[in-house]
Design brief:
This protein is of the alpha/beta class and 159 residues long. It has five helices and five strands; from the N terminus they run αβββαβαβαα.
Length: 159
């Protein structure tokens, strides 16, 4: 179910793992939180092919995910083609999950500049740019989820 406000998303995901998605044109980076929303771990990178929804469902099942946070590329509060593509994919994920008897809360969160931040973070982890680029999307998903928790930590205590 697509959620429109932060408080509702936090209420529906309390004590549940949240899966963050960094959706690109060819790949989707994944990161996951612990149920207490204290630790965020980069998970993997999916290729956006015809089977990615099935792969995503397996991950949701295997990790017992209770909510999905999707990074939305909002730049200067204007909608662009990439923003619309991500919203459409979010809607498709929701529809696919419902067809498979999974009614998870899905929320969009601003992901502006997360790939840039992820590149800075991962420079120390990888020997070369090619290796870094293989993993950058899952670290961007981690940044998205970290940002969400950091900004909503006080709000979370109040629900």
């Amino acid at each position: 179910m697509l959620i429109r406000n932060t408080k509702e998303f936090l209420e529906k995901t309390i004590s549940n793992k949240i899966l963050a998605l960094d959706i690109g044109k060819k790949k989707i980076g994944l990161a996951i939180s612990d149920p207490n929303h204290k630790i965020v771990t980069p998970l993997e990178v999916l290729k956006k092919n015809r089977d990615y929804l099935k792969e995503l469902l397996l991950i949701i099942t295997d990790y017992n995910v209770g909510g999905i946070l999707i990074g939305l590329p909002i730049i200067k509060i204007t909608k662009n083609k990439m923003c619309q593509m991500v919203r459409d994919i979010g809607t498709n994920i929701d529809k696919f999950l419902l067809e498979n008897n999974f009614d998870l809360p899905i929320f969009f969160w601003d992901e502006s500049y997360t790939s840039f931040e992820a590149k800075n973070v991962t420079k120390a982890f990888f020997k070369n740019t090619k290796e870094q680029n293989k993993h950058i999307d899952k670290f961007a998903a981690k940044v998205i989820l970290d940002d969400f928790f950091n900004e909503n930590l006080n709000e979370k205590k109040n629900y």
